From TrEMBL:
Species the sequence originates in: Flavobacterium cellulosilyticum
InterPro entries: ConA-like_dom_sf, GH43_C2, Glyco_hydro_43, Glyco_hydro_beta-prop_sf, Glycosyl_Hydrlase_43
UniProt protein name: Glycosyl hydrolase 43 family protein
Active site: D38, E207
Site location (Important for catalytic activity, responsible for pKa modulation of the active site Glu and correct orientation of both the proton donor and substrate): D150
Amino acid sequence: MKNKISFIFICFVLITQTVAFAQERKAQNPLIYADVPDMSMIRVGDVYYMSSTTMHVNPGVPIMKSTDLVNWKLINYAYETLEDDNDRLNLENGKNDYGRGSWASCLRYHNGIYYVSTFSGTTGKTYIYSTKNIEKGPWKKNVLNASYHDHSILFDDDGKIYMVWGAGKLEIIELNSDLSAVKPETKRVLIENASAPAGGNIMLNSEGSQLFKINEKYYLFNICWPRGGMRTVIIHRADNINGPWEGKVGLQDQGVAQGGLIDTPDGKWFSYLFKDAGGVGRIPYLVPVKWEKDWPIVGENGKVPQTLDLPPSKGLIPGIVNSDEFTRKKGDAALSLVWQWNHNPDNSLWSVRVREGYLRLKTGRIDSSFVQARNTLTQRTFGPESSASTSLDISKMKEGDIAGLSLLQKEYGFIAVKIENGAKKIVMIDAAKGLPKEIASIPLNQNKVYFKAACDFKERADNGMFYYSLDGNKWIPIGSTINLPYTLPHFMGYRFGLFNYATKNIGGFVDFDYFHIADTLSKMN
């Protein structure tokens, strides 16, 4: 009997391990455990492309590429700066553009040309970028003098080009052939109340339009949020672009919503959506789709599966985030695509070439706060755990300068060197509730120092810690654990940031030797 029980137990263990291994060999949700919201996705042949939102950081509208729908790599941006002569975008005169900039984009491919469009509440305009080479450009820019909220473009078979936009009441216009202007007298209401399939008590009206034409039928995806409920996928369909449109709830599970449809060369269908995941940001999910009576049925029995019948992820490094030694060969880009500046940069005040193997950040004006300082260089944090470290040469800092490593959001935190009364000190700042407070201060008597920031997003823990080292080997925690809440004023997941700003004198500079990123806290050393 004992031997029989042992045999059964061994079989159970083997089966469990086999199932676990099989699951590990498949893609997992979330698809990307980092802030990649408002996705728009296309397939060209056997290659997939995806655009996303990064709002107030630049360059903007990131373009990613994949051959398997799972492993993505940044390949380009639609623009370097949205506009240059704007106080909000430039962090000038006490103004900023946190939570604004450019919002949800639409990515399309038609007759050999790639199109990426986005809109801005800051400028009140809609921007349409086009190129024949999505990886190398150049991009042509068209500007519409209206901000078409969460719009979606459709190139129809009859040669007409439609744009749908709005919230709750969805409207439609036609664009001319080169997408440079709206055709006169084509604006009309498409759907009077797109939220109706989810009931009458709606907290967030239907928005995030994504319009498709599949097998001669039109499909429109939106998100809405019933009061007391969750983010919900709404799907409408019609035989004619002008209707009548019939709608239904497409998915209500975990708040995974807002996106569209993508197919594979072998005929599989998926819906790309995202979920609000706390401090790490809004993270992408991929959900299987089946077709029944010409309706896309999203999910497995109405649920978002944990695993997908796709290849496993190889991780976000180096495709979405990456370490950097700041060494550049002749012909290399100054910054790799994983980097984005907080707002428009002042390009006269930074360099990776003036000192070989270092990023130099120089001060050029007086700033009163970290969030108003220009030239903070950022990368995404990511989950479930992540950390970043750097080394600073601080020998050329001036009185009042503050330079270091941050976790950037409205309730930010950072570790930095501060020059005060001619003395150097390490400070740790926590801006809980948006109010910065010096939590710890330690005298510093050398010109080289090492900083580290660590994030824990497991099960919405959403906390961060800072560390310093005097030799690059022994890491010492400083201050206290900080909360990393997602706040709407910044509307973005936390970002690692390298920064240097002046509070009293300009002209000082700091040289960052490297930026090292890790996907678990255990790799921090």
